[in-house]
Design a protein that fits this description.
The protein is an alpha+beta fold. The protein contains 4 helices and 20 strands. Bound molecules: zinc ion.
Amino acid sequence: MMMTAPKQMRAWISRLDRTLILAVVLLSSVFPVELFSNTHPALKGVDGQYSGKQGQVLVVKVKGEEQATEVKGTFLKRTIPFFREFRPGEPAGYIGLLGIDMQDEPGTYELAVEVKQGEQAKQLSFNVLVAKEKFAVEHLTLPKAKVDLDEKGATRWKAEQQLVQQALAENSRLKLWHSNFVEPVNGKRSGIFGSVRIMNGQPRNPHNGEDIGAPLGAEVAATNDGIVRITVDHIFSGKGIFIDHGLGFYTMYFHLSEVLVKDGDLVTAGQIIGKVGATGRATGPHLHWGVKLNGARVNPYSLLDLPFKNGVTPPTTATIPSPETAPTPEAAPVRE
Ligand SMILES: [Zn+2]
């Protein structure tokens, strides 16, 4: 055994050498050029750590960079545009709203941020820990025809999906919203964002928004400034409105009894855009409120929790609080 030890050690050292060389090669291929003076090549995640649960919105801040012409992040193949943020008495910086999709797998992922200054670019790297949210499980009983679409219904549904996709394909390049969000209707929040749905005994897509119970005809307000991208009357969503708030941020309002805006209308925060109803696949009057943020389906109430509303400084490392436990399905009087 003693005789073989040096040989084993040599093999071990040689493996270590190879690993080190490989690491250096990999790092230099990831960070090939030194573009900005006085900066050093960054290692992954060295610029900050963030954490949040599935369905939450994180506020990511890039300080300084006053000369930057564009700041853009990439997270799980989704593009996160950053916007300039000015606050009295604070250094200028860029803010990005990072949406964690309700079905992003728990784990740690990189948020890579590119800061462009004319022809030059530098990379920042953040680690984002995605934590599991406890979503409710809902058992729903609906008329068979509303769960199992016949051929005609399935064709209609497909065409409607395509229409919406086309309408939302191009994000407005301007940020239209401001930092104060409005709850669209005064009502009972059912807490079923992200819930796993069993319809007539069959597992279906999780619930991608929040349902707010309110009387038929209650006024529904736009949560923030934006442009009405498309109004619909679709098989599942019923009468609905999609508002584009700019930079890939959309809100949706479904099951309305009345739509009071038209495609292309500019709306402001708090403006009444429709009335609560039970159109489409709904078992009673309520508003289905949904949010898509750069492709991520997030809990709409995380907008109301954003730490920069009313001029409050966003923390550089933010975790948006959310209820620890998902409410029981019994607490949700309304569906779909
Ligand atoms: Zn719903």
